Amino acid sequence: MTTVIGQMQVEGNRKMVRPENSNSRNFAAAVINVVLLVTVAAGAFYAIAPVVA
Fold first, then answer.
1. Is the CB of residue 19 less than 8 Å from the CB of residue 25?
2. What is the 3-state secondary structure of the chain?
3. Is a pLDDT exceeding 90 seen at residue 3?
4. How far is 31 from 7, CA to CA, in rounded Å?
5. Contact residues for 25 (Cβ-Cβ < 8 A; gap 6+)
6. What is the C-alpha to C-alpha distance for residues 6 and 10, in angstroms, rounded to an integer?
7. What is the C-alpha separation between 20 and 5, in angstroms, rounded?
8. How distant is the alpha carbon of residue 3 from its chain centre?
9. Measuring CA to CA, how many Å separate 48 from each of 18, 22, 33, 44?
10. Which of 1, 14, 18, 50 has its CA 20 to 30 A from that of 28?
11. Is the whole model's pTM more than 0.70, yes or no?
């Protein structure tokens, strides 16, 4: 027989182990995308700048 608190703990553990839509994961993905975008932009700038100058 499972109590209400026990059932809530099981549900909480299930969500912690496998989050459906984690905000922290989405935020980390956005940060990685911005870093990659800045890196590519800087690389393109340094590749084109000597040709233009």
1. yes
2. CCCHHHHHHHHHHHHHHCCCCCHHHHHHHHHHHHHHHHHHHHHHHHHHHHHHC
3. no
4. 36
5. 19
6. 6
7. 22
8. 35
9. 45, 39, 22, 6
10. 14
11. no
Residue pointed to by tokens 């809530």: 8
Q: Which two tokens stand for residue 32?
A: 């990685």
Number of domains observed in the structure of the chain: 1
Q: Per residue in 4-31, pLDDT tens? A: 666 666 666 666 555 556 788 889 999 9
Whole-number Å distance between alpha carbons of 17 and 11: 10
Name the residue range of residue 34's domain. 21-53
Amino acid at 5: I
